[in-house]
Amino acid sequence: MADILDQQQSTATMNTVLDDMAKYNHEQVVFCQDNATGLKAIIAVHNTVCGPALGGTRMWNYATGAEALTDVLRLSRGMTYKNAISGLNLGGGKAVIIGNSRTDKNEALFRRFGKFVNSLSGKYITAEDVGISPQDMTWVNMETNHVAGLPGKSGDPSPVTAYGVYVGMKAAAKQQFGSDSLAGKKIAVQGVGHVGEYLVNHLSKEGAEVYISDIHEDTLKRVADTYKAKVVGLNDIYDLDMDIYAPCALGATVNDDTLNRLKCSIIAGAANNQLKQEEIQGKAVIEKGIMYVPDFMLNAGGVINCYAEVAGLTSEWAMAKAEEIYNTTNLILNRSSQENIPTYAIANKMAEERIEALGKVKLSF
Ligand code: NAD
User: Fold this and answer.
1) pLDDT at 362
2) Residue 4: what pLDDT?
3) Residues classed as catalytic
């Protein structure tokens, strides 16, 4: 009887997973389990039409396997769109390791994970994401070559990410203010970590009036002193009279509450998933006269840097490619006003158009 019940439960779970995969057309999900090392991980390959699926591995203490699955499915799909709109020959994938990144890391765990990545024979290429360091990736690399962002190779992607955000912000300024100069513009950078600090550097060099917030007082003070930036409170940032709001910390900071308070003309930052609900705030920003620059296009510098490593290209190539974000921003903003469609939807459409076009190439032999 117990066996029958177990079987019914397994069937229901499997149907749910397949339904979740079907919802956004994921190609493959690999569940990685190993009692000896304690590894519990999921690799999701969303789409490989444009090339092998590249996306980082996140280590997080998910409360349940279902929560981990939801996250990896959502993140891997995001990578497909980011890689496609950036013109990279990469598909979208992502991995999550269930565990505490402060206490559960060890060589065996990451090497076992590397073996799972290797079993996909290059269909999925991994890199760092939240909770994962370059050292962890060197362990993964002992078992597989399908890794990017290794120390001594393409290195920290943050400077390239920040540069892409900076040039995209300039393109938006040109359309909103008539000039792409950021001199004298009041810009609030939320979160001055890896990307945020490099962005503040570009902005202060150009003569912008920079405001910053961060949860770490020491970081805040150091960045404020170094770049002559003004500090603003964690919650006060949304009420600031500013030209540009640059979220560079967490996602979902553009929501119904903050949109009632934000007094900016442009939203352009590095954080992923800035709009809490794309379809709601993506339209609401237009009613408020705010130009929203789609995050997954604007922050693609990091994956561009990883691609340079995988494809054997130089760091100069990566910076030049990140500079194209200026033109892509223009394209999105122009199409958005011509077609009367919100910027987030145009960006999605542009990514889907490239995937559809390359799908025809794939089918032609
Ligand atoms: P990070 O962890 O180095 O920096 C984030 C900073 O935000 C930290 O200093 C943290 O203290 C601060 N912070 C956290 N909560 C905050 C809050 N409520 N208010 C203000 N500050 C807060 O991360 P990062 O690598 O700089 O990435 C920043 C964002 O950009 C993330 O959303 C990340 O997913 C995204 N992103 C990063 C890259 C990259 O190359 N690093 C690429 C693409 C996207």
Assistant:
1) 74
2) 65
3) 94
Number of domains forming the structure of the chain: 2
Domain residues for 281? Answer: 158-353
Amino acid at 177: F
Quote the DSSP letter at residue 215: S
Ligand 1: which residues within 6 Å by Cβ?
157-158, 161, 190-196, 213-216, 219, 234, 248-250, 270-272, 299, 302
Count other Cβ atoms within 10 Å, centred on residue 204. Answer: 18
Query: How confident is the model at residue 15, as a pLDDT?
Result: 82
Q: Are 271 and 126 in contact (CB under 8 A)?
A: no
Whole-model pTM: value is 0.92
Q: What is the pLDDT of residue 363?
A: 67
Pick out the chain residues at pLDDT < 70. 1-5, 363-365
Which residues fall within 8 angstroms of residue 62, CB to CB, at 6 or more apart? 68, 71, 96, 98
135 and 230 together in one domain: no
- What residues contact residue 36 under an 8 Å CB cut-off, 6+ apart? 108, 112
What angle separates helix 325-339 from helix 158-177, to the nearest 10 degrees? 40
Q: How far is the CA of 145 from the centre of ligand 1 (A)?
A: 28
Question: Residue type at 274?
Answer: Q
Residue 176 belongs to a domain with what CATH number?
3.40.50.720
